[in-house]
Design brief:
Layout lengths: L4 H13 L27 E4 L5 H8 L14 E6 L5 E4 L45
Length: 135
């Protein structure tokens, strides 16, 4: 929306020093006359899933590659960081219901999942995560 462009620009500029980042998402680049050119220098990465035209793909990642993603390639996209070439990636579907894990009596015990198809959420850590499935 045109009224938010100045706000987003300020968040991008000031927020960077405060480690605040924006994730802007849209299903269509038709901005209805809204100019986002002001924001573009502050956008450090871009993601494009399948696009309907090469011009949309070029507007997002600078190349037409996202237009050539087929219907059979669900979750495939391209990530462009800075001025680097776009990198193809595969995302995963996370629409399965969340099933909470049960922690055993001792803190050293691994969490036990309630169902095989559960989505497991781990606390964030930079250390390697050991994933032990019990049951």
């Amino acid at each position: 929306h045109p009224d938010f462009i100045q706000l987003f620009d300020r968040i991008c500029r000031v927020g960077r020093s405060l480690r605040v980042h924006l994730l802007l998402a849209t299903q269509s680049l038709n901005t209805g006359g809204t100019r986002i050119d002001k924001l573009e220098p502050n956008l450090t990465y871009r993601i494009a899933l399948r696009t309907t035209s090469s011009s949309e793909s070029k507007a997002v990642i600078g190349t037409p590659e996202a237009q050539y993603i087929t219907n059979k390639e669900s979750g495939v996209g391209f990530l462009r960081v800075g001025m680097e070439d776009p990198v193809k990636f595969q995302s995963v579907y996370t629409g399965d219901p969340y099933v909470a894990t049960v922690v055993g009596a001792g803190e050293d015990e691994a969490p036990k999942a309630h169902a095989d198809k559960s989505i497991r959420i781990h606390r964030f850590t930079a250390a390697p995560i050991m994933d032990a499935r019990v049951g």
